[in-house]
């Protein structure tokens, strides 16, 4: 999965100001350290501000001030309701000018920020007027069954899941719903020896819905729209304190790998190895340049077959993985042209082995 995955979760929150409780206009605290932190305005709350600031400090730390000024100008433009398209155009141009001295920020971060604001900024603009103030419903998190040291991760994810119910389900669904599933069924991808589902999957699914704010929402695609985002954000926050197993290859960097690993570990831990094999096969397919569409189709089919019968993994986590590689895999595919780590393709892929020109 490409490096841009990190920005997906950050961008989904960036400038989407739905309610006072999650808007960028938090009241400043009295302590001097908190006052200093409040100067950074790229984000909607302490979570997204910390994530965006950390990324800018990594990619182009000397450009923090001009980038922050772009965010301030964008917020002000939204507040004055000067027209969403106009505000977004100004924001995009401002970012391109501000990040021009730094190649990574200029070529990757600024364009993606711009794209996300254009796609998901409608709710933020509507909520930024002087009369547009939403009252968030109470956040009621349901704690799932304790499962050892990771139980606290599930609890945090569920709390964030309820928080994310404040966001437009249409916006989230536009990104995380699978675009084309089982587009190239391959019976050879069936992973022999995959553990069969137990009652754990269904009980976790029940515990997530029962008694939470989700119970009051229409069935639709609510879990698929919101769960993956909540889980990844929760795990990115606690990531530094948890190490990912060395063999885990689903993800483009440490933060992404951790989030992906814990998503699987929390919903279908016994499938971690076979899910990882799908990621290894996908990396190998990319490195051999067998065609991005073909590799992504194989990746999605492999995961869906591997997790069949496991409700959360099959209907929430895996469709999210699939959608991410389809939408943000272009850069990773182009960068994988050089030889990479060796990995075994799943059986039934013989017709593509040795064909490095497949497209």
Automatic annotation (TrEMBL):
Q: What InterPro entries does UniProt report for this protein, alphabetically?
A: PLA2-like, PLipase_A2_dom_sf
Top-level taxonomic group: Eukaryota
> What GO biological process terms are annotated to this protein in UniProt?
arachidonate secretion; phospholipid metabolic process
Signal sequence, start to end: 1-21
Keyword entries, A-Z: Signal
Instruction: Kindly give the PANTHER family that the UniProt entry links to this protein.
Output: PHOSPHOLIPASE A2-LIKE PROTEIN Y52B11A.8 (PTHR34228:SF3), PROTEIN CBG09474-RELATED (PTHR34228)
Q: What is this protein called?
A: Uncharacterized protein
Name the source organism. Answer: Mesorhabditis spiculigera
